[in-house]
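Thread: Modeling a multi-component assembly for a lab meeting

Hi all, long-time lurker, first post. My supervisor asked me to bring a structural picture of a complex we are working on to next week's group meeting, and I have zero experience with this. I have the sequence lines for every component (668 residues in total). Could someone generate the structure of the whole assembly? Inputs are pasted exactly as I received them:
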Amino acid sequence: MDCVLKLDRLPEKKPFIEGIRRAPRRDSVLSEHDMEIALKNALRYIPEQFHAELAPEFMEELKTRGRIYGYRFRPEGRLWGKPIDQYEGKCIEGKAFQVMIDNNLDFEVALYPYELVTYGETGQVCQNWMQYLLIKQYLKELTNTQTLVIESGHPLGVFRSHENAPRVILTNGLMVGLFDKPEEFNRAAAMGVANYGQMTAGGWMYIGPQGIVHGTFNTLLNAGRLKLGIPKDKDLAGRLFVSAGLGGMSGAQGKAAEIAGAAAIIAEVDSSRIETRYKQGWVSKVSDDLATCVKWAQEAQKEGKPLAIAYHGNVVDLLHYLINNDIHVDLLSDQTSCHAVYEGGYCPVGVSFEERTRLLAEDHEAFKKAVDASLKLHIAAIDELSKRGTYFFDYGNSFLKAVYDAGVKSICKNGENEKDGFVYPSYVEDILGPQLFDYGYGPFRWVCLSGKPEDLDKTDAAAMDCIDPTRRYQDRDNWVWVRDAKKNKMVVGTQARILYQDAMGRLKIALRFNEMVRNGEIGPVMLGRDHHDTGGTDSPFRETSNIKDGSNIMADMATQCFAGNAARGMSLIALHNGGGVGIGKSINGGFGMVLDGSERVDRILSSAMPWDTMGGVARRAWARNENAIETCLAYNRDNEGTDCITIPHIADDTLVRETVLNALKSNE
Ligand SMILES: NC(=O)c1ccc[n+]([C@@H]2O[C@H](COP(=O)([O-])OP(=O)(O)OC[C@H]3O[C@@H](n4cnc5c(N)ncnc54)[C@H](O)[C@@H]3O)[C@@H](O)[C@H]2O)c1
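Re: Modeling a multi-component assembly
Sure thing. I ran the full set together rather than chain by chain. Output:
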């Protein structure tokens, strides 16, 4: 096995294909010494005889793009997740992960494919094209008694392990606490030692915005049930949902709103992203005229018909128009990339998309000021709409944190700082946490590695068969989702499906699929999940925002989930810093599991699938979340003799309050 990148000659420099989105210049404040290190770091991948030619080219990339991507090493043309048979490899997992990586970099799927960004403005598969080539080189050679180790996109090497060990262990952006801040991360990334993996980008498990359509559909539907009084068997017909962003993940909002029956207006400043969503049929109408957008929405509401409208413009302008014209909004959110608010994730009002890109490159201070001013106007408009009866929720993009960082303290529950949370809920706090995560329902997914649509049809049907829609309303929602998934044309990239399931639901489906592979009914399948789940992610502003026992600032659960999945033999395990909310604000992990039809895989699934989810439900139960306690009690009953989850005793609130008050009084 070669332990350096095989390179007889330098690949030709290729032109960038017109119309493919490019990442803005990334922030990088490097000293002269840092720049030298950055250059030496990038040249580590390349044989010495090419250094003289490449050094100035890499330096130019660092100067103009803020990072060294090694563009020249990108394979020519479109990358895409081909059927697994078309990849070379010595084990099925080695081939399967190549499918996943290429899918994450597909022009049709990725946000900035040339910069290896899959979604979320900064979420990368790895840092540069030299790493991409080396990872693929290793995956081709990997055997089923070895493990490939990836640190922030860099393939550290292949080490001997055993058949039931993970084939790939990867981490992204994990930083030592003292340095765990965006500025330090940006410096490390510019020097070529840190990768922002987001969630499924750096874990190679992104399946296009379908992944989030289901989550958004669940969120909107349950928000309607909880806050608008919509009965459990009805949808959002006649209601108006307003939000911003039609990018990688946010692009799901229009489609999800339509599936949930609502009329929706989604603001987006970048016309190319609107075009992508329109071509896909994920928004049905487009206009840059606010009156037209509102007229369309109101007509749809009157007729009770679903309709997703893209407004080409800034969300702040949209909100001002709605306020000034007294238009009632039922549900309001935002999905601009506020986790990277000063890196281009949020476009300030009054600044066009093109001007935003210029400002970012030429006058970062002015850009930051404009962002802060815009966020202040944005939150004031939300306050006004909320007064008029709109339900606003933060959609996990760090919007409220960004508003706070812009200097708006009134957004804090305690009026001072973010420690006690914000006056508006995060969607997990009110909706997804108690209604889904506390039961273990989360974004289970699979990819049919054969690339055959008929395999996906068969797995959809088998999954439907595994769900009892009469058990809980969540089961019915999920059953309806998978029943209609094909009709809703969810596939972008590989033949993949997302399906929210609880722990035992995931296990049942996983075992059924593996049996189908064994019987030759379908080709091999990759199982995985989004990190945005019950057990894999510690993120106080998002996934763990409904944990109220003080442990929301701990990262033990995500770390245990990762370690436990490794111990049980998942094919790939990932642990990242940052995710959807930004560096230092979360630790999150995920997995990939290749179903090859073997009994060995059945055994791994039987222990790993329940652990991956129930570890999270157990922690939620220990935090005294009622639905999680109920779920764990049932799990303990059903799994007596193999599993036993610790259940909390619940102290009486009055007793606790009085005891504390008395103690404080006696101190006076
Ligand atoms: N809640 C979840 O489940 C979840 C999942 C993944 C990502 N996220 C978070 O959601 C955010 C969006 O993710 P993404 O992948 O769509 O990112 P993205 O960068 O691809 O898309 C964001 C879009 O917002 C647009 N935009 C920015 N400012 C705007 C403004 N003022 N008005 C109108 N449009 C504006 C951008 O042009 C861009 O297209 C990220 O912060 C991400 O971390 C949330």
